[in-house]
From TrEMBL:
Alpha-D-mannose 1-phosphate binds at residues 43, 146, 157, 164, 202, 204. Keywords: Cytoplasm, Isomerase, Magnesium, Metal-binding. It comes from Adineta steineri. InterPro entries: HAD-like_sf, HAD-SF_hydro_IIB, HAD_sf, PMM, PMM_cap. The active site is at residues 34, 36. Mg(2+) 1 binds at residues 34, 36, 244, 246, 249. Involved in the synthesis of the GDP-mannose and dolichol-phosphate-mannose required for a number of critical mannosyl transfer reactions. PANTHER family: PHOSPHOMANNOMUTASE. It catalyses: alpha-D-mannose 1-phosphate = D-mannose 6-phosphate. It comes from the Eukaryota. This is Phosphomannomutase. Homodimer. Coiled coil: none annotated. Its EC number is 5.4.2.8.
Amino acid sequence: MTTPTTPFATPGDPFANDDGVFTARKLDTICLFDVDGTIALARQLITPEMDAYLQEIRKKCLIGLVGGSDIVKIAEQIGGTKAIAKYDYVFAENGLVAYKNGQLFFEENIQKHIGEDNLQTFINYCLKYLSEIQLPFKRGTFIEFRNGLINVSPVGRNCTLEERHLFHAYDAEHQIRSTMVKHLQEKFPHLGLVFAIGGEISFDAFPEGWDKRYALKHLEKDNISNIYFFGDKTFKGGNDYEIYNDPRTKGYSVTSPVDTRAQLCELFAP
Protein backbone atom coordinates (compact mmCIF):
# COMPACT_ATOMS: atom_id res chain seq x y z
CA MET A 1 0.00 0.00 0.00
CA THR A 2 1.44 3.41 -0.96
CA THR A 3 1.62 6.27 1.50
CA PRO A 4 -0.93 8.98 0.66
CA THR A 5 0.67 12.31 -0.15
CA THR A 6 -0.38 15.76 -1.23
CA PRO A 7 1.00 17.57 -4.29
CA PHE A 8 2.58 20.12 -1.94
CA ALA A 9 4.90 17.86 0.06
CA THR A 10 8.61 18.59 -0.45
CA PRO A 11 11.75 18.11 1.66
CA GLY A 12 11.99 20.91 4.19
CA ASP A 13 8.21 21.41 4.32
CA PRO A 14 7.36 22.06 8.01
CA PHE A 15 4.23 19.93 7.62
CA ALA A 16 6.00 16.95 6.04
CA ASN A 17 7.96 14.15 7.67
CA ASP A 18 11.75 13.85 7.51
CA ASP A 19 11.53 12.36 4.02
CA GLY A 20 9.51 15.31 2.74
CA VAL A 21 6.29 13.29 2.61
CA PHE A 22 3.08 14.68 4.02
CA THR A 23 0.97 11.75 5.18
CA ALA A 24 -2.13 13.29 6.77
CA ARG A 25 -3.85 16.59 7.34
CA LYS A 26 -2.53 18.06 10.57
CA LEU A 27 -5.47 19.01 12.79
CA ASP A 28 -3.25 20.48 15.50
CA THR A 29 -1.82 23.03 13.05
CA ILE A 30 -3.44 26.12 11.54
CA CYS A 31 -2.46 28.86 9.13
CA LEU A 32 -4.31 31.89 10.47
CA PHE A 33 -4.65 34.94 8.25
CA ASP A 34 -5.55 38.58 8.69
CA VAL A 35 -7.94 39.69 5.92
CA ASP A 36 -7.32 43.26 4.66
CA GLY A 37 -3.89 43.58 3.12
CA THR A 38 -3.06 39.92 3.75
CA ILE A 39 -5.34 37.65 1.71
CA ALA A 40 -7.17 40.48 -0.08
CA LEU A 41 -6.62 44.16 -0.77
CA ALA A 42 -8.36 46.51 1.66
CA ARG A 43 -12.13 46.04 1.43
CA GLN A 44 -11.79 44.13 -1.85
CA LEU A 45 -12.68 40.60 -2.85
CA ILE A 46 -10.14 37.83 -2.54
CA THR A 47 -8.81 36.82 -5.97
CA PRO A 48 -9.79 33.40 -7.38
CA GLU A 49 -6.09 32.46 -7.42
CA MET A 50 -5.57 33.23 -3.71
CA ASP A 51 -8.86 31.56 -2.82
CA ALA A 52 -7.86 28.37 -4.64
CA TYR A 53 -4.38 28.41 -3.14
CA LEU A 54 -5.71 28.64 0.41
CA GLN A 55 -7.96 25.66 -0.26
CA GLU A 56 -4.90 23.71 -1.33
CA ILE A 57 -3.20 24.67 1.93
CA ARG A 58 -6.31 23.41 3.73
CA LYS A 59 -5.53 19.92 2.45
CA LYS A 60 -2.48 19.93 4.69
CA CYS A 61 -3.63 21.74 7.84
CA LEU A 62 -6.42 23.88 9.22
CA ILE A 63 -6.88 27.40 7.85
CA GLY A 64 -8.58 30.35 9.48
CA LEU A 65 -9.22 34.09 9.28
CA VAL A 66 -9.05 36.70 12.02
CA GLY A 67 -10.16 40.26 11.31
CA GLY A 68 -11.30 43.34 13.16
CA SER A 69 -14.29 43.78 10.85
CA ASP A 70 -17.69 42.26 11.51
CA ILE A 71 -18.68 38.98 9.90
CA VAL A 72 -20.71 40.70 7.17
CA LYS A 73 -17.70 42.63 5.89
CA ILE A 74 -15.40 39.62 6.10
CA ALA A 75 -17.93 37.49 4.22
CA GLU A 76 -18.14 40.11 1.48
CA GLN A 77 -14.40 39.81 0.90
CA ILE A 78 -14.22 36.02 0.76
CA GLY A 79 -17.18 35.40 -1.52
CA GLY A 80 -20.32 35.62 0.61
CA THR A 81 -21.70 33.94 3.72
CA LYS A 82 -21.46 30.47 2.21
CA ALA A 83 -17.70 30.97 1.85
CA ILE A 84 -17.33 31.11 5.65
CA ALA A 85 -17.55 27.31 5.64
CA LYS A 86 -14.49 27.14 3.34
CA TYR A 87 -12.39 27.99 6.39
CA ASP A 88 -12.07 25.86 9.51
CA TYR A 89 -12.29 29.00 11.65
CA VAL A 90 -13.39 32.56 10.95
CA PHE A 91 -12.87 35.03 13.78
CA ALA A 92 -14.68 38.32 13.22
CA GLU A 93 -14.14 41.34 15.49
CA ASN A 94 -10.84 39.87 16.75
CA GLY A 95 -12.53 36.62 17.78
CA LEU A 96 -15.37 38.16 19.74
CA VAL A 97 -17.60 36.61 17.08
CA ALA A 98 -16.31 33.16 16.18
CA TYR A 99 -17.29 30.60 13.54
CA LYS A 100 -16.13 26.99 13.23
CA ASN A 101 -16.87 25.06 10.05
CA GLY A 102 -19.32 27.77 9.04
CA GLN A 103 -21.28 27.75 12.31
CA LEU A 104 -21.36 30.52 14.93
CA PHE A 105 -20.18 29.15 18.28
CA PHE A 106 -19.16 32.19 20.35
CA GLU A 107 -20.15 35.84 20.77
CA GLU A 108 -19.18 38.57 23.24
CA ASN A 109 -20.30 42.21 23.59
CA ILE A 110 -18.33 45.36 24.52
CA GLN A 111 -21.46 47.14 25.77
CA LYS A 112 -21.85 44.69 28.67
CA HIS A 113 -18.15 44.92 29.47
CA ILE A 114 -17.68 48.69 29.90
CA GLY A 115 -21.28 49.79 30.54
CA GLU A 116 -23.68 51.97 28.58
CA ASP A 117 -22.76 55.26 30.30
CA ASN A 118 -19.05 54.83 29.61
CA LEU A 119 -19.80 53.75 26.07
CA GLN A 120 -21.86 56.86 25.32
CA THR A 121 -19.32 59.18 26.92
CA PHE A 122 -16.59 57.71 24.74
CA ILE A 123 -18.66 57.87 21.54
CA ASN A 124 -19.78 61.45 22.24
CA TYR A 125 -16.18 62.56 22.75
CA CYS A 126 -15.10 60.91 19.49
CA LEU A 127 -17.88 62.64 17.55
CA LYS A 128 -16.99 66.01 19.07
CA TYR A 129 -13.30 65.51 18.25
CA LEU A 130 -14.09 64.52 14.67
CA SER A 131 -16.34 67.55 14.22
CA GLU A 132 -13.41 69.83 14.97
CA ILE A 133 -10.80 68.45 12.57
CA GLN A 134 -10.55 69.59 8.97
CA LEU A 135 -9.79 67.00 6.26
CA PRO A 136 -9.70 67.24 2.46
CA PHE A 137 -13.11 65.52 2.54
CA LYS A 138 -15.46 63.71 4.94
CA ARG A 139 -18.21 61.20 4.29
CA GLY A 140 -20.60 59.26 6.54
CA THR A 141 -20.43 56.58 9.26
CA PHE A 142 -17.67 57.90 11.46
CA ILE A 143 -18.43 55.57 14.39
CA GLU A 144 -19.33 51.92 13.94
CA PHE A 145 -20.46 49.92 16.96
CA ARG A 146 -19.53 46.24 16.79
CA ASN A 147 -19.88 43.41 19.27
CA GLY A 148 -16.26 43.45 20.33
CA LEU A 149 -15.06 46.96 19.56
CA ILE A 150 -15.75 50.52 18.51
CA ASN A 151 -14.46 51.40 15.04
CA VAL A 152 -13.62 55.07 14.48
CA SER A 153 -13.09 56.48 10.99
CA PRO A 154 -12.10 60.18 10.74
CA VAL A 155 -13.00 60.31 7.04
CA GLY A 156 -16.10 58.12 7.33
CA ARG A 157 -16.59 54.52 6.24
CA ASN A 158 -18.92 55.59 3.40
CA CYS A 159 -16.02 56.94 1.37
CA THR A 160 -15.34 55.47 -2.06
CA LEU A 161 -12.40 53.17 -2.78
CA GLU A 162 -10.53 56.06 -4.42
CA GLU A 163 -11.22 58.31 -1.43
CA ARG A 164 -10.06 55.52 0.88
CA HIS A 165 -6.67 55.47 -0.85
CA LEU A 166 -6.45 59.28 -0.83
CA PHE A 167 -7.15 59.46 2.89
CA HIS A 168 -4.63 56.71 3.60
CA ALA A 169 -1.92 58.75 1.88
CA TYR A 170 -3.06 61.94 3.67
CA ASP A 171 -3.04 60.14 7.01
CA ALA A 172 0.47 58.81 6.41
CA GLU A 173 1.66 62.40 6.07
CA HIS A 174 -0.46 64.13 8.71
CA GLN A 175 -0.93 61.32 11.28
CA ILE A 176 -4.65 61.98 11.74
CA ARG A 177 -5.44 58.60 13.25
CA SER A 178 -2.40 58.27 15.50
CA THR A 179 -2.93 61.79 16.87
CA MET A 180 -6.56 61.04 17.69
CA VAL A 181 -5.58 57.77 19.36
CA LYS A 182 -3.13 59.64 21.58
CA HIS A 183 -5.87 62.05 22.67
CA LEU A 184 -8.23 59.17 23.48
CA GLN A 185 -5.58 57.34 25.48
CA GLU A 186 -5.04 60.46 27.60
CA LYS A 187 -8.77 61.14 28.01
CA PHE A 188 -10.00 57.63 28.85
CA PRO A 189 -7.26 55.72 30.72
CA HIS A 190 -9.84 54.47 33.25
CA LEU A 191 -11.74 52.48 30.62
CA GLY A 192 -8.84 50.12 30.00
CA LEU A 193 -9.16 50.42 26.25
CA VAL A 194 -6.55 49.44 23.68
CA PHE A 195 -6.36 51.22 20.32
CA ALA A 196 -5.23 49.58 17.09
CA ILE A 197 -4.79 51.24 13.72
CA GLY A 198 -5.81 48.90 10.89
CA GLY A 199 -6.74 49.11 7.24
CA GLU A 200 -6.62 52.48 5.51
CA ILE A 201 -9.26 54.70 7.10
CA SER A 202 -9.99 53.75 10.71
CA PHE A 203 -8.83 52.48 14.06
CA ASP A 204 -10.39 50.17 16.65
CA ALA A 205 -10.94 50.67 20.37
CA PHE A 206 -11.52 47.61 22.54
CA PRO A 207 -10.94 46.37 26.10
CA GLU A 208 -7.47 45.21 27.11
CA GLY A 209 -6.94 41.65 25.89
CA TRP A 210 -9.63 41.92 23.20
CA ASP A 211 -7.15 42.28 20.36
CA LYS A 212 -6.62 39.45 17.86
CA ARG A 213 -5.04 37.31 20.57
CA TYR A 214 -8.60 36.76 21.77
CA ALA A 215 -9.02 34.28 18.91
CA LEU A 216 -6.18 32.15 20.24
CA LYS A 217 -8.16 30.97 23.25
CA HIS A 218 -10.66 29.30 20.92
CA LEU A 219 -7.85 27.45 19.19
CA GLU A 220 -6.30 26.41 22.49
CA LYS A 221 -9.60 24.86 23.58
CA ASP A 222 -9.50 22.74 20.43
CA ASN A 223 -5.91 21.63 21.16
CA ILE A 224 -4.44 23.49 18.18
CA SER A 225 -0.85 24.02 19.25
CA ASN A 226 0.91 25.08 16.02
CA ILE A 227 -0.35 28.47 14.89
CA TYR A 228 1.16 30.19 11.85
CA PHE A 229 -0.12 33.78 11.70
CA PHE A 230 0.13 36.05 8.64
CA GLY A 231 -0.64 39.77 8.87
CA ASP A 232 0.34 43.13 7.40
CA LYS A 233 -0.20 45.50 10.36
CA THR A 234 2.44 43.90 12.60
CA PHE A 235 4.08 47.18 13.68
CA LYS A 236 3.49 48.51 17.20
CA GLY A 237 0.05 50.13 17.19
CA GLY A 238 -1.11 48.02 14.24
CA ASN A 239 -3.96 45.59 14.79
CA ASP A 240 -1.79 42.54 14.04
CA TYR A 241 1.01 43.51 16.43
CA GLU A 242 -0.09 41.57 19.53
CA ILE A 243 -0.97 38.29 17.86
CA TYR A 244 2.11 38.47 15.63
CA ASN A 245 4.37 38.80 18.68
CA ASP A 246 2.49 36.35 20.87
CA PRO A 247 4.67 33.37 21.93
CA ARG A 248 1.85 31.01 20.96
CA THR A 249 2.15 31.95 17.28
CA LYS A 250 4.78 31.78 14.58
CA GLY A 251 4.37 35.23 13.05
CA TYR A 252 4.86 36.21 9.41
CA SER A 253 4.75 39.90 8.47
CA VAL A 254 3.48 40.49 4.92
CA THR A 255 3.08 43.53 2.72
CA SER A 256 0.28 42.40 0.40
CA PRO A 257 -1.69 39.32 -0.70
CA VAL A 258 1.02 38.68 -3.30
CA ASP A 259 3.63 38.67 -0.53
CA THR A 260 1.45 36.38 1.58
CA ARG A 261 1.38 33.82 -1.17
CA ALA A 262 5.12 34.17 -1.72
CA GLN A 263 5.78 33.48 1.95
CA LEU A 264 3.38 30.56 1.93
CA CYS A 265 5.32 29.15 -1.02
CA GLU A 266 8.40 29.12 1.18
CA LEU A 267 6.52 26.94 3.65
CA PHE A 268 4.70 24.86 1.06
CA ALA A 269 5.76 23.76 -2.39
CA PRO A 270 4.32 26.01 -5.15
